[in-house]
Write a structure and sequence with these properties.
The strands form four sheets. Strands 2-1-5-4-3 form a five-stranded antiparallel sheet. Strands 7-8-11-6-12 form a five-stranded parallel sheet. It is built from 20 helices and 14 strands. 45% of the residues lie in helices and 18% in strands. Helix 19 packs across helix 20 (458-467). By secondary structure, it is α/β, with parallel strands linked by helices. It is elongated, with a radius of gyration of 31 Å.
Length: 471
């Protein structure tokens, strides 16, 4: 093999390597003419290497970093970001010099638009989580006054009594804030030293278990060999040791009430398939949309209901409480924008918009009230791409930003006196439509409708969604 053939083979190998790279690579001569383009670079321009080679680089990359390198003969290290269409790149470029003679330049670059889009989505999700997560401390909401003060005083006594913390039951309609209250009780117990700062808070939705055997194994744990394929596993009681076990939807506990009663009375549990008793020290908070005295064993109800805390629905709360809730959720949105974008965000509502939101009927209570406020602010707010470089924004929410079903006057009339059947009425349609916008599926929607008193099976919801795809 002569030297020329060897050189050609080496060039072929190098081209193959560069074409397999995940980054774009361009090589130009000193006049800016492309002498090599790899596959990735050509794909960015919706072209092929053969069509690009021999043409000026600015024909494809008008703001190419290589043009600066040709002019200055100095390298650029990942500092320049430029666009081709809507794509965004970070690029490093270097001059090609041998024996003091300048021949051209090459660049290596990658698309960072996808990464930035992902980062934006992450920031958006973090913001949504911060808007909907339960409060961390009781003082942030205790000043709502009225029924809230009574509720929180009772909740504080349940975990802060000088005689020791007690088990408790929280009841109320769906969306009244039962999970939030349980979280507040947990944080208050940590604050006053009833439980340690690193004590666990274990939450379980009891309604998720359709098989009582699986439920028992989740709550009490299992030993290897307890059933075919079973492994040694800690249950929720063990995980909650030293802290709080929150049993949501506790009215579905009927299949394993005796085991739960035994654990509460003895302070010990035994894993399914095990022979050894395990001591547990757990405060239990049970929550339900139903009257648990009607569905639990009397002995179990007596043990759990040492404190029974009723959360009033939004319609039972005073105008002052609604105003305070309204202000709380608006401030929480403003803080979420500050945390996500470092922007001072001031949200204002027109008088008419404020009146509509405060006077509307919310079948799903505080949760829906919060979600409608957030949706209205979202609707009036600028897009992320429009706030670059701003440090302070004032935004006004008007009637046109409020979801139509809240503004529609007959919603209130229908919801107030409506006989709740398994039919999908006009008011139920509006509720379903909103839940669809929240990303919920037919089973979840059916479950929440039943909690609101509408006995509508999931297949009916699924049929409605399928036949109303424009929703």
């Amino acid at each position: 093999m002569d030297a020329q053939e060897k050189l050609l083979n080496e060039i072929k190998v190098f081209k193959e390597i560069m074409n397999r790279s995940d980054e774009g690579i361009n090589i130009v001569d000193k006049n800016g003419v492309l002498v090599f383009v790899n596959r990735v670079s050509a794909e960015y321009c919706n072209s092929v290497p053969e069509e690009m080679t021999g043409r000026l680089i600015e024909d494809f990359y008008p703001n190419a970093v290589l043009l600066n390198v040709i002019r200055t003969k100095k390298a650029v290290y990942g500092e320049k970001i430029h666009f081709v269409g809507k794509k965004k790149y970070v690029c490093s470029s270097f001059p090609i010099e041998f024996d003091g003679k300048f021949y051209g330049a090459y660049s290596v670059f990658r698309d960072v638009q996808e990464i930035e889009d992902l980062n934006r989505r992450v920031r958006y999700l973090e913001m949504q989580v911060s808007l909907t997560k339960p409060e961390n401390d009781i003082e942030s909401v205790v000043n709502y006054g009225g029924s809230f003060n009574k509720v929180f005083n009772k909740a504080k006594r349940a975990v802060g009594s000088i005689g020791g913390p007690r088990h408790s039951i929280i009841t109320g309609e769906s969306g009244t804030g039962k999970t939030m209250l349980a979280t507040l009780m947990y944080n208050y117990a940590k604050k006053i030293g009833v439980i340690s700062q690193n004590a666990p808070f274990i939450e379980i939705n009891c309604a998720q278990f359709t098989n009582p055997d699986i439920a028992a194994m989740e709550i009490f744990g299992s030993e290897e060999g307890a059933y075919t394929g079973s492994k040694k596993k800690q249950g929720l009681f063990e995980q909650a040791h030293g802290g709080i076990l929150f049993l949501d939807e506790a009215h579905t506990l009927e299949n394993y009430q005796n085991l739960l009663l035994k654990a509460i009375e003895s302070g010990k549990i035994r894993r399914i398939g095990g022979t050894k008793d395990i001591s547990i020290n757990v405060i239990i908070i049970a929550a339900s949309t139903r009257n648990l005295s009607d569905v639990l064993l009397p002995e179990l109800y007596q043990r759990l209901a040492q404190y029974e805390i009723y959360l009033p629905s939004l319609s039972e709360r005073s105008c002052e409480e609604k105003e305070q809730l309204f202000s709380h959720f608006v401030k929480k949105y403003e803080q979420a924008v500050m945390d996500a974008h470092n922007i001072k965000y001031h949200v204002k509502f027109t008088d008419e918009a404020r009146k509509i939101l405060l006077r509307a009927v919310y079948p799903r209570n505080v949760r829906q009230f919060r979600d409608v406020i957030n949706y209205s602010i979202d609707s009036s707010s600028p897009l992320i791409e429009d706030i670059s470089g701003q440090s302070e924004i004032i935004n006004t929410v008007t009637v046109k930003d409020i979801p139509f079903y809240i503004i529609d006057g007959d919603v209130k009339a229908e919801n107030i006196g409506e006989k709740k059947t398994d039919k999908i009425t006009s008011s139920v349609k509006r509720i379903i439509d909103q839940m669809i916008l929240e990303g919920k599926g037919p089973r979840k929607i059916s479950h929440e409708l039943k909690e609101m008193g509408y006995p509508i099976e999931y297949y009916k919801v699924a049929y409605y969604i399928r036949t109303n795809k424009n929703v």
